[in-house]
Amino acid sequence: MTNILPSDHPKLPTRKIGVLIANLGTPDGYDYWSMRRYLGEFLSDQRVIDYPAWKWQPLLQLVILSKRPFSSGAAYKSIWNEEAGESPLMTITKSQTEALREQLRATLGDHVVVDFCMRYGNPSTQSKVDQMIKDGCDKILFFPLYPQYAGATTATANDSFFAALKSAPWQPAVRTVPAYFDNSNYVDALAQSVERAYANMDVRPDHLIASYHGMPKRYLMQGDPYHCQCQKTSRLLKERLGWEDGHIVTTFQSKFGPEEWLQPYTVEEVARLAKSGKKNIAVIAPAFSADCIETLEEINEEIKESFEEAGGETFTYIPCLNDDAVHIQALASIVQDNLSGWIK
Known about the structure:
alpha/beta, Rossmann fold, 2 domains, 4-stranded parallel beta sheet, 8 strands, globular
């Protein structure tokens, strides 16, 4: 029996499944006010900085956001995609989205909609969730592109996604993709990127530095699994490459504030290695799905400088997986696994 809607019934779109990938975010520009808006949103997130608001906000608004937009803006300017008028993270995320869309269309058809959002800045999670619902997505798979889970990354992205559903008159069924730090396809994509880089080097590095974004050590002690998942990714990468213990050194970067963070700190460890006679190193950033300010500026400029000033000679940065075909295949495989039961 065919259901016939009355003539005055609102038009219903064809039902679809949405796949919404999420990354950290990016300022709209490197000018002072763009940087201030972006940093203000980012550093006001209680998942990122968990100090009491009464204590943190005056310091943030009156001191940090008066000065930091200038230094951060200069760093962004040094890596900005001037041709596209956007940060490299935005350019790469757009490319990843298009590649993933094509990959999933080939296997799942046109009824799966793929798009991206940013936790901070634009396009916002709210705007993309609203658009997917408007386009007829009655099921949405939310995919934070963080291989290792952390409260300050995966959890806050999920928080933003769930908050976006509050205003929906008809909420879709939803799922979130869990951390994929030990996914064999992801680890293989990392390994292949290392193998390609090493194949083009005249001298084999003394060590491969696996530099992960840091966090306060206090978060680990409170139960955040990030540190353990980073260590496991490094171990699985070593095993996949068939290397002996010691060749991969796990470190943590981007320390902020006065308290102790996860150690060893990348910027200090590369200097220590150089002073100990390790003159050739390579650095990879397994926690980042796309190159961004922390890799293109911090690793490839600040951390490189620390190594060379300590006597290091050859510093090779191995780019993030970005839109590499093997990476996109890995992400597509993870998506399909998490769509189980939704796709016939």
